[in-house]
Design goal:
By secondary structure, this protein is α/β, with parallel strands linked by helices. The protein is built from 20 helices and five strands.
């Protein structure tokens, strides 16, 4: 039987061997080709006043919106780890817990990008054991999947080392992902922050696998939507096809949740079975009726509502408002409500009507927060990223702060923000 100390030695040796192999490959590639050009990772830098600025500035941990089924996406990128002597790993653990504490009450996904972990920057295995011990049930319970991207033999040795400490239930959450294309089958790549170094490594792996230079990554042309399509199409398309100002998915889910979900604790924080959500989406897109009573789960329409918002080609609050919302941090706190009012009133009429309908409902949910535990702040954490995102880049952790702040204002101060503009075709939830 292999002892823990022997496994630890094997893991260390394996990591050094992998480093040497990678360095040799990179040296060989430099002889005949230039590295592929990859756009830099985007997003705002953390504020120097951040309590963990010394760690946050490296971009090791990022919150990248939601996956396709409403679960928060959190990434840990090894390639962003500086040399060990430049980073206090105890502070890193505290920062990781600080970040997770904001989201562990809702379902979330953890994505670990392994590439870039080296002898010079890796935390000790003792630190890893202590870190695992620090993460009690509240962190593990709502983590639905741990994706390990680009695993190596080192990862598998470490996993064997930790097996005696890890419950069978937690172990089932681990999923190895060999290529980013496999990850895109599960997650919304437009919202996932992937470091350029990881993108380059993935291209190199695909090239080696195929024996030829990696092809340019191209987005396939979009298929024309079905006449009955509800997900992934614009508000204008829905208006033309359904002759209603409020999209049917939104009006039906809001109506159902208003009747049966307002007092459900943690509404909008829980996910639902992935295949079930796909089935409901398919029914909607085929123009078939959806009876949420059949599912006997109030979280199904809640996830469907978030999924509908997230799959819109342009966010409900429009790309045009993104930079204005990002500037909200620079607005004096006493003026932020009026600034949000100005931004909402600048929306196109259809967007304003739908936003007013949705935020009116969320305001209603927040008024039941004593029972459902969904305050305006909690709702902002859930809905902010589904109401606004940048047009041509993933969403960074730093960029989430003003988005959530704006969303919280829209929910909490709904009467003030939306009260002065009353289009003739508006509809209340």
């Amino acid at each position: 039987m292999t002892s823990a100390s022997h496994l630890e030695q094997l893991a260390e040796i394996q990591l050094q061997e992998e480093e040497e192999e990678e360095e040799e490959e990179e040296e060989g590639q430099r002889c005949f080709t230039d590295p592929p050009s990859v756009p830099p990772i985007s997003g705002s830098s953390p504020d120097p006043s951040h309590p963990f600025y010394d760690v946050a500035r490296h971009g090791i941990v990022q919150v990248s919106g939601d996956d396709r089924y409403g679960r928060k996406l959190i990434t840990f990128s090894s390639c962003c780890l500086p040399p060990s002597h430049q980073l206090n790993h105890l502070r890193l653990l505290e920062y990781l817990k600080f970040t997770l504490d904001q989201y562990v009450e809702m379902d979330y996904i953890l994505v670990y990008f392994h590439h870039g972990l080296r002898s010079s920057n890796k935390p000790s295995l003792k630190w890893l054991r202590e870190a695992y011990g620090e993460f009690d049930r509240k962190y593990k319970k709502n983590m639905k999947t741990l994706y390990v991207v680009h695993p190596t033999n080192f990862i598998r040795l470490v996993w064997n080392l930790f097996k005696p400490l890890i419950s069978h239930k937690f172990g089932k959450k681990l999923t190895y992902v060999n290529h980013l294309s496999d990850l895109w089958e599960h997650l919304n790549y437009q919202q996932l922050l992937v470091p350029p170094e990881v993108l380059r490594h993935d291209e190199k792996l695909r090239a080696a696998q195929r024996g030829r230079p990696p092809p340019a990554v191209r987005t396939p042309p979009p298929r024309p939507p079905l006449p009955s399509q509800q997900f992934g199409v614009s508000l204008q398309y829905l208006r033309e096809k359904n002759a209603e100002m409020i999209p049917p998915v939104m009006s039906q889910t809001v109506t159902y949740l208003k009747q049966k979900g307002l007092r459900t604790e943690g509404i909008f924080r829980r996910s639902a079975r992935v295949q079930l959500i796909k089935d409901v989406q398919r029914l909607y897109n085929l123009g078939k009726p959806v009876n949420f009573d059949l599912y006997e789960n109030v979280h199904v329409p809640a996830v469907i509502l978030k999924t509908f918002l997230r799959e819109m080609p342009e966010p409900l609050l429009t790309f045009g408002l993104y930079s204005q919302v990002q500037d909200l941090l620079n607005v004096e706190s006493s003026l932020r409500v009026s600034r949000c009012q100005q931004m909402m009133e600048s929306l196109p009429e259809h967007n304003f009507i739908v936003a007013k309908y949705l935020l009116g409902f969320l305001h209603m949910v927040s008024q039941q927060s004593i029972v459902n535990k969904m305050s305006s702040s909690n709702l902002a954490c859930v809905f902010g990223v589904n109401l606004l995102w940048p047009g041509h880049a993933p969403l960074s952790l730093a960029a989430l702060t003003p988005i959530n702040m704006c969303t919280e204002i829209l929910v909490e101060h709904f009467p003030s923000v939306f009260g002065s503009r009353n289009p003739p075709s508006q509809r209340d939830p």
